[in-house]
Amino acid sequence: MKLIFTGLIALCTVTATFANEGMFGPTWIEGHNYKVVDGQLVDLGPTPAPTPTPVQPTIIINNNVMNSNPAPVPVPTPAQKQAGSISVHPWDFIVDLWTHYSNYDSGWITDFTQDGLTNYFGQRRASNTTIIRDMTVDSRRYSQWHATYYPETFWRETSNEYSPNWQGPMIYDHIDMQSDVYETGVRWHHARVRFTVGYTYVNRVLKIYALSYQVLS
User: Is 56 a member of any domain?
Assistant: First the structure.
């Protein structure tokens, strides 16, 4: 369920790390990286936050979902659907993902999420039915939003998480944004957040295993 953003909310991190589909292996420490050395899992410590270097223009997307007077701004065409259109920038997929999530496009989201095995903003092993239900509830509560994305903060992490149930390692994309969400009849919530998506390929189809965000300020 979407968290209520506040300007000075305490730092909270929800990260997802999977050792295998259908099982989570040992207890992971949130915010840490791991790798396998000589058959043993080694804790590499906390993930260092990248130092932003503002060298590219920001991306600003505004939208009004419901119960609002201004006309909605059209969302961008999905940069990476299962049929295989090509992304122009490496951050296109994660930006499209947040856009469709904020527009409560549960059909688009669940086309990617791995049913019953997705860490959905802290809900482990969330089913697509659960995701659809939560997005429907959120759509009644939060009616407007806009986000300013910072492409210079985008980074891609290739993990050492492998499984016979998917091809290749688990990949994590991260991007920082200024997120503003209107709680209908209450107030606007403002926060700078780091959005993360964890995904890999199952039978050559991109599947999401983790959606999380960290409130930065």
Answer: yes
